[in-house]
Design brief:
homodimer, about 220 residues, alpha+beta, 4-stranded mixed beta sheet
Chain lengths: ~220, ~220
């Protein structure tokens, strides 16, 4: 069943709130559209560096707009994003390496999704640290990992194979000419179609031959 | 009748293809949503300079993405945008001063809309010059201006009051913290709500209490 579904890769970083929106939409549409989302933890710092881009929101007016845009999107999509007053750059390297371990260990469950959500919640909803081992531990436990698993995953997250894996996923995104996150890749007639940001689902639906039904596709009271 | 409609200001420049998309959508929804769009010719160069921003597409990967995004949007929205192979910056100052004259002379007609479309078509569809007086003349005539009007408008476009008017409209956008075009401003409960780009109509509909029906709101076969 799964093999006949269109594979959609979402490259994301938990320091990107728009990534959370894109992630949520793909989760909600997984059983509505004929798609199989593959969640790919990448490192935003590596994307910015590798593409020669600048971080979003450097311009003061654009930053102001992003905050009001996020507040409105949060309400519309029902995702609890509350931009913190200090939006200075938080490095996500430890968090994304931790998620890389979770992704590598994942079999058929949804642990990666649950841990990712806990990290997004910490950063964008409850405004807690996501850089320290204690913070990653707390997120892992909340997501249903055992204490032993969290400890093992934290150790593994410092290993060379995991560092290399995160680097290779980030490079995979860069190979698609990624310049920021979220970055979504799907194939239509053998051609890689790419989408940047969380405002492209209607266009994606058009290209994929699916129907965009707004942020709540399963609600009978969907607005569209 | 008109006074009860929500005034929506669209600040635009004809060197911005996303402005064309936003313009088209507002035209199509004018009699579908309870809105009264006000088209405000502004100068993108002044917006970029005044906000301290950089022009879009400086990053090579982002530029590649913009081209494929525009081609897809063009097809989806039914607006004939064909990005030229050379996207090097074309200065729109003469064109936007010309449109400022048209806007100032407009009474209740749609001349501003028609001349704007002719200029967008030249730049983004037939890839013709929009900087020289002869080009502006051709666009004006195609849009239905008389030869006398075009001549008068070209002379006026070099006058101080028109230069000042374009500067003041550009400043009006900057006062709303504009950092790029298209930039849309509407008021909800006395608060200015701003939207950047051409991907925000669904969110705008949500905020305005209207229904987004995709790019063809009047077609019975609308996809949404």
């Amino acid at each position: 069943m799964s093999s006949s579904r269109k594979i959609i890769k979402l490259f994301y970083d938990v320091t990107s709130p728009y990534s959370w929106l894109a992630f949520e939409v793909l989760c909600r549409y997984r059983n509505v559209w004929n798609i199989d989302p593959k969640f790919k933890p990448a490192y935003l710092g590596g994307i910015i560096h590798g593409s020669g881009n600048t971080v979003p929101g450097l311009n003061p007016s654009e930053l102001l707009y992003m905050v009001s845009d996020l507040i409105l999107l949060s309400e519309y999509f029902g995702v609890p994003i509350f931009p913190p007053s200090d939006l200075s750059k938080i490095d996500s390297l430890n968090a994304m390496r931790f998620l890389t371990v979770v992704a590598e260990r994942e079999k058929k469950g949804d642990t990666l999704e649950r841990v990712s959500i806990e990290l997004w919640k910490r950063m964008w909803c409850t405004h807690k640290d996501i850089t320290q081992p204690a913070s990653l531990t707390e997120a892992g436990l909340k997501a249903g990992l055992s204490a032993n698993e969290v400890e093992e995953f934290l150790t593994l997250s410092k290993s060379q194979p995991i560092k290399d894996k995160l680097r290779s996923v980030t490079q995979e995104a860069l190979d698609y000419k990624c310049f920021g996150l979220p970055f979504i890749v799907g194939h239509v007639n053998g051609k890689a179609e790419i989408f940047f940001g969380s405002d492209k689902f209607e266009l994606m639906a058009y290209l994929f031959g699916e129907k965009w039904m707004g942020p709540y596709p399963n609600k009978p009271t969907a607005t569209m």
